[in-house]
Amino acid sequence: MKVAVLGFGVVGVGIWEMLGQAENLEQGPVLVRPGKKDAPWKVETLDEILADPSIDAVAEAMGGVEPAFSYGMRVLRAGKHFITANKALVAARGIELSALARERGLAFLFGAACGGALPYLQQLCLAHRGDRVLRVSGILNSTTNYILDAMQRRNMEYCDALKDAQALGYAECDPTADVSGLDALRKIMLACAVAFDRLPADGLCCEGIDRLTAADVTDFKRRGLTCRLLVSGEPVGDTVSAYAEPVLLPPDREECAVLDNFNLARFDAERMGRMALLGQGAGRYPTAGGVIRDLQWAVLGGRQMLSPACVKVTADNSRVRHRYYLRLPRALADRFTPEEYVLCGDTARIVTEPVSVAEMHAAVREMREAGADVFFAAMA
Ligand code: HSE
Asked: Which of 103, 118, 208, 360 could form a disulfide with 277 if both were Cys (CB 3.0 to 4.6 A apart)?
């Protein structure tokens, strides 16, 4: 199978290199930005790829929804398989790409978009067809896991740890999506789409670690807790709950042992029980390896991760409840019914009674709109 590559950044370069060594696969041309063609195997327009009948598949590693979506539709209309590592694209337009691929009998696979090297979506797809998946969950963002682990174990400052994660190629070009929780949220949206045939498109709750301070981490350690950014999705009536938020975990929880850029991608199935995959969720070769795996799956006949039944839904996060840890201005602590209350000057650190995910995220949004500096995390 001859494969063209769209984009020649961190992941695109990795795909190109791995294509040169993989069985069954052959390097095709690489689409680069105008003015960046410095080798005969690079091209500056998609048309050159579409017009080449020797190219069987296109691997996309450009990122962003456009022009990746238009390119993907054109690739499929030209009769070529379309494999992508782009979660923003699949979360926004995956259902349309999947429908066109199905109509044409082509592969539209996006395993590398959720968990990098981990064959998570592939396993979910197979589990969904043989069992009933009850819940998808875990650690699906490497940048934030790297930062949290560096702050906790190596006492690093947030900014220094983020710079390292960028230098190591884990973070997105603009790391806002990583640290705000959006990257992890998009991945759990994809997992819900594959596992439950429901792609939650709004009503989602998303909290990252961008408000975390070294003093917060010191307080977690004092309590014997470890912070991780976790995602969760499960069926709720005709829809799903789907959210990303920091969670404080006791030492016996498996998430505490997930270090550096590693991800822990988990699902619970009715008959098979709990399953978890642990591995590198970001970086050049882990992500490129995920794309190569999807290409190999296409060689073996793999075509779709989304079923024709998959529809967009509004998430319902009002039924899942947690106790929450908050660091907030003392004057706002009365808003909750704390089980625990510690004061340090004008700052309060509290642990609430169980509150729904939707209610807590809305309450904190309201406090921030009024100018308050608040960090919160669920208590595992
Ligand atoms: N920025 C992402 C992460 C890359 O840190 O997990 C992989 O999707």
From this structure: 118
